[in-house]
Amino acid sequence: MQKIAFFICVLILLAGCSAPDEKYTTVANGQEERVQQIEKVLEKHESIEHVNMVVLDEAMLVAIQVKPWSRWKKQKIEQQVKKELEDKFPKEKVTVSTDFKLHWEAGKLKEEKDQKKIRQQVKQLSNLAKEET
Amino acid sequence: MKEERYQQIEQQITPKAPVAFNMLKAFLVGGSICAVGQAISYFYIIFFNFTEKTAGNPTVATLIFIAMLLTGFGLYRRLGQFAGAGSAVPVTGFGNAVISAAIEHKTEGFVLGVGGNMFKLAGSVILFGVVSAFAVALIKTILVSLGVISW
Prior knowledge:
- The complex is a heterodimer.
- Chain A has helices at residues 2-15, 32-43, 74-88, 100-108, 115-130; strands spanning 24-28, 48-55, 59-66, 93-97.
- Chain A is of the alpha/beta class.
- Chain A has one domain: GMP Synthetase, Chain A, domain 3, CATH 3.30.300.
- A 4-stranded mixed beta sheet of chain A has the order 1-2-3-4, sandwiched between helices.
- In chain A, β1 (24-28), α2 and β2 form a beta-alpha-beta unit.
- Chain B has 2 domains: 3-120, no CATH class; 122-151.
- Chain B is built from 8 helices and no strands.
- Chain B is an all-alpha fold.
- The A-B interface holds A 99-102, 104, 128-129, 131-133 and B 42, 45-46, 49-55, 57.
């Protein structure tokens, strides 16, 4: 029993040693310039841990995961980033969310090749972000 | 024997409750229940169309359902004996309170027995929940209409 407990403890400790991933995962077709602009905006916020973003011609989805202690201020960070991005890109439809669901789904879009499906999914996710109950 | 003397003797004889150990047990079991709840919440987020905001309701429903099954099989009682408040304070304690009252009064019939006594323990929880939610919503509505805060 003790050996098993020790083994589990070692596993959990070692799991913490894995190298941190890249901070940004992006899905963008020929929108690299805009991606850099978005990254510049996000760089100012220190409490952001990881970002999955999908940048299309007319819309963008920025799904943020914040650091654990900043989760109390999740909504505030979300609103701030949204406002900054909307000021920078007034013509596009900007969706910013700190929700885990959107982060997860946006991360999955990286493997998707079909542009039409990506567009559809982004639309669906931005609708999902508005749901209250 | 005088009352004071009796109390003195009683205090001497009564074994001391291992408060720290009980708290540790409650903490561990309550924490494990919450960890299971978190796992269920992630399950709903990943496999269904729920966000962090909306996954709360189905998670609570699932936890209550599991606690009800465990109560019916007589397993929750053992957990309650071991963990005390650790198993009563999370929402699973609510399911346990409903079903244990229903089982207890089953012999009196389904309508007057089960139906009438099911919410004997948990009814007050529902009542307090509804009334306090109404009060909070009322305060928030007033504050929003006055323009102090926004939704």
